[in-house]
């Protein structure tokens, strides 16, 4: 941990109302400034105790505090470094180690993740019988969506009309296996806006989940593989449609010690920079747009998706109350901390329901699963779509 980064915090408290765990529990040590105090204690010689590790683990890493901080504290960097230290120094109990072992041997490996899909309905039914001790595995089963069909994409999707750009496209892990229709819509939208879309085969995990969990060695290995994959593809820009993946890939320089040979852009960010040329057909819908934390707070991408949606004739965008508060997904948080994640999910579902929107639009697969599950619990099974799917429907003139 970097003492200079720690000392940047003046403990003003502007972060408190934006922190999901402080909002839930009102505990100082479960706020950003409280955790920074614990970091300072550790740097000054206090060992990582189970209680200290618990406060760090309880952080969602949503980065809302980074947005709120008037002093520019790099809490994002601090919590990532701290989690590496926790993984090195803290001995987790056997059950925790087992659950984490399962998650990190599955999620970063799309082929393994694919094998879980046929048994997900059974696991979901069994989740109610396995008891509290296996709440994490039950939460994992309950979140997984049903996948109707896989959509295979070619290695290159050619631009329709005049070619304006050539971009690489990240397929992701959860996005690829549980939301293949989002990747297909992303490729079509880019193509219709004049892009050749290069989709390298045998893509692996970008390393985002490992970074957020302090698994530094695994994160670097996966990041290096991703960099090699897209550098070999010869693209100068990689477009990402998953907020968590995009956030981590933009920080590859910090993780690996050198910048990759390409720039990373979120889909909405790239399309806003490119400018629209394809005709938008009307979509008479009211939509609630959800700000994924790693898009709004970590990447600073807020206006671009709203502008893209507002450019669709007949579509009305409604804002969600308390939009800055995390939905509780946070990568693997809703698996490792299912009770807190459920409380945050229920808060978000209530806020979404208050908009009266017909469709919830999200730009991150974890958020999509988390909020959809919370809406089902509330008895309001709202339709959910990615920004790419809404744009795709409008550009093709089809019903969503």
TrEMBL record:
Record-listed E.C. numbers: 1.1.99.14
Keywords on record: 4Fe-4S, Electron transport, Iron, Iron-sulfur, Metal-binding, Repeat, Transport
Pfam family, one: CCG
Lineage: Bacteria, Bacillati, Actinomycetota, Actinomycetes, Streptosporangiales
Organism: Nonomuraea coxensis DSM 45129
Enzyme class: oxidoreductase
Function: Component of a complex that catalyzes the oxidation of glycolate to glyoxylate.
Cited PANTHER family: GLYCOLATE OXIDASE IRON-SULFUR SUBUNIT
Reaction(s) catalysed (UniProt annotation): (R)-lactate + A = pyruvate + AH2; glycolate + A = glyoxylate + AH2
Name this protein carries in UniProt: Glycolate oxidase iron-sulfur subunit
Cofactor requirement: [4Fe-4S] cluster
């Amino acid at each position: 941990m970097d003492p200079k980064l720690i000392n940047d915090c003046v403990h003003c408290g502007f972060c408190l109302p934006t922190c999901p765990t402080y909002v839930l529990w009102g505990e100082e040590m479960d706020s950003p400034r409280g955790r920074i105090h614990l970091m300072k204690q550790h740097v000054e010689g206090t060992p990582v105790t189970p209680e200290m590790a618990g406060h760090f683990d309880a952080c969602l890493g949503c980065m809302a505090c980074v947005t709120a901080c008037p002093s520019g504290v790099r809490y994002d960097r601090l919590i990532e470094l701290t989690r590496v230290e926790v993984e090195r120094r803290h001995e987790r109990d056997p059950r925790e180690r087992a659950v984490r072992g399962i998650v990190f041997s599955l999620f970063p490996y799309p082929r393994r993740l694919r094998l879980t899909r046929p048994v997900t309905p059974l696991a979901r039914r069994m989740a109610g019988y396995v008891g509290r001790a296996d709440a994490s595995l039950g939460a994992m089963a309950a979140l997984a969506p049903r996948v109707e069909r896989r959509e295979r994409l070619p290695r290159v999707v050619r631009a329709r009309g005049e070619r304006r750009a050539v971009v690489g496209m990240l397929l992701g892990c959860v996005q690829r296996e549980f939301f293949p229709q989002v990747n297909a819509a992303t490729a079509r939208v880019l193509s219709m806006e004049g892009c050749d879309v290069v989709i390298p085969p045998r893509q692996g995990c970008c390393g985002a989940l490992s970074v957020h969990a302090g698994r530094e060695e695994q994160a670097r290995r996966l990041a290096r593989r991703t960099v090699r994959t897209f550098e070999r593809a010869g693209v100068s820009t990689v477009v990402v449609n998953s907020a968590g993946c995009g956030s981590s890939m933009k920080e590859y320089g910090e993780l690996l010690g050198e910048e990759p040979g390409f720039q990373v852009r979120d889909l909405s960010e790239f399309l806003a920079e490119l400018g629209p040329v394809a005709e938008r057909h009307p979509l008479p819908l009211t939509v609630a747009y959800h700000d994924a934390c790693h898009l709004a707070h970590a990447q600073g991408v807020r206006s671009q998706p709203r502008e893209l949606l507002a450019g669709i004739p007949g579509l009305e965008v409604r804002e969600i109350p308390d939009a800055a508060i995390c939905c509780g997904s946070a990568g693997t948080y809703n698996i490792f901390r299912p009770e807190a994640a459920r409380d945050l999910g229920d808060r978000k579902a209530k806020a979404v329901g208050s908009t009266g929107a017909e469709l919830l639009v999200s730009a991150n697969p974890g958020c999509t699963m988390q909020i959809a599950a919370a809406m089902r619990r509330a008895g309001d099974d709202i339709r959910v779509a990615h920004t790419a799917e809404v744009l795709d429907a409008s550009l093709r003139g089809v019903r969503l």
